[in-house]
Design brief:
269 residues; alpha+beta; five-stranded antiparallel β-sheet; 30% strand
Length: 269
């Protein structure tokens, strides 16, 4: 077993494991760590715990130290400078007539790198832009193309539910979401109703999917012929959360609602 702490660098960002070493750390501490991008400032969101070696990516990098008030001032200064860098970068993008949309800009904690996140419909030749930016900021420049879901995660916004979108507020990773999940939950397939701000299927389709999948084997499908209340009929809808099925009866064509255990079917596997 290996002792680790989980560190997050952005709100709702991915959590990375680090070696706490001899430092006495706890949930909520601010720390300075070594990453593949350089020295970074982050929050401990998972306190010290033991995990199996096969569950970590080796080599495990170290927590250098707890962050100080001076470190927090550096972080704030970096944020302010990044905002200024964004304004300059937008002007440079327009100057070079590049078909790209700048989404966010950030300095690494040690200012060894200035990262520009952007979206674009295709590949962008930004070599001249990088040279231009490097001459202005005198540091290593990285331009990183991101997808529309990452753009929404960075910018945030209000979802169809009226709350701040999940990816911006708490989701660390994007889970695969499919139209099958919407069908299984009897949701409208109107793209406007099941799409998020990013234009992709809303992430919350995944939240209850496991429950629906577990319930599927107990339910007939819409269109199945069944027997209920001593009469045959055809299933017109199923409501898995409350365990009910609506059946159009053969005899009087009336649509009746039954508990799923009151319905017998021979053609549902």
């Amino acid at each position: 077993m290996v002792t680790v702490v989980g560190v997050r660098f952005k709100k709702a960002g991915k959590v990375y494991y680090f070696n706490p070493g001899a430092l006495e750390l706890e949930l909520g501490d601010k720390v300075i760590v070594e990453t593949s991008r350089g020295i970074e400032y982050g929050d401990i969101v998972i306190g010290p715990k033991d995990v199996k070696e096969e569950d970590i990516v080796t080599p495990l990098k170290d927590v250098i130290r707890k962050a100080t008030e001076e470190d927090e001032k550096i972080v704030e200064k970096n944020r302010q400078d990044a905002q200024e860098a964004e304004e300059i970068a937008i002007e440079k993008i327009q100057k070079h007539k590049l078909e790209m949309k700048l989404v966010d800009v950030e300095y690494t904690f040690d200012r060894s790198k200035l990262i520009f996140y952007f979206t674009a419909d295709g590949r962008v030749d930004f070599r001249e832009l990088v040279k231009d930016l490097a001459s202005v900021f005198r540091t290593r420049i990285e331009l990183r193309q991101i997808g529309v879901r990452d753009e929404a995660k960075m910018l945030g916004g209000i979802g169809p539910c009226g709350r701040v979108i999940c990816c911006h507020s708490f989701l660390g990773d994007f889970d695969p979401v499919s139209i099958k999940m919407a069908k299984q939950q009897n949701l409208s397939l109107n793209p406007i109703k099941i799409s998020g701000l990013c234009g992709r299927l809303i992430c919350c389709l995944k939240y209850e999917n496991d429950v629906y999948e577990e319930a599927t084997e107990d339910f007939p499908d819409v269109g199945d012929t069944v027997t209920a209340d001593g009469d045959g009929g055809v299933v017109v809808s199923v409501f898995k959360p409350d365990g009910t099925v609506k059946v159009q009866m053969n005899e009087d064509k009336e649509i009746k609602e039954f508990d799923v255990d009151q319905v017998d079917t021979n053609d549902h596997d």
